[in-house]
Amino acid sequence: MNLDISNCQSLTDQSCASIARHCVNLEFLGMRNMKDLTGLKLSKMFQDKDRASSFQCITLSGSKNVGVAKYETNQCSLFR
Question: What are the start-end ranges of the E strands in the chain?
């Protein structure tokens, strides 16, 4: 499953929790140019290790409030 919410400027903690809860087979997550995205909000999607293991690619370019070192993967560049 792919989800691209790039350029969304109204992402909330509840939105992130909802994505994590309902998008159980998420492989690609596009989150480019999101000024309100923070590492704390992003971490909600990785709290469940079983669900987090399905992620293949996360794009965060332009989302400047995220410390990306924690989210690097072997399969995808975070800055595509």
Answer: 2-4, 28-30, 57-59
pTM of the model: 0.71
Q: If you search the block for the tokens 């370019």, which residue do you land on? A: 61
Contacts of 15 (CB under 8 A, 6+ apart): none
Task: State how far the Cα of 26 lies from the Cα of 62, in Å rounded to an integer.
Answer: 21
Domain span including residue 14: 2-66
Query: 58-71 pLDDT, tens per residue?
Result: 888 888 877 654 44
User: 45 with 69: CB under 8 angstroms?
Assistant: no
Instruction: Report which residue type is found at 41.
Output: K
Domain count, the chain: 1
**Are 19 and 26 contacting, i.e. CB atoms less than 8 angstroms apart?**
yes
Q: Is residue 37 in a domain?
A: yes
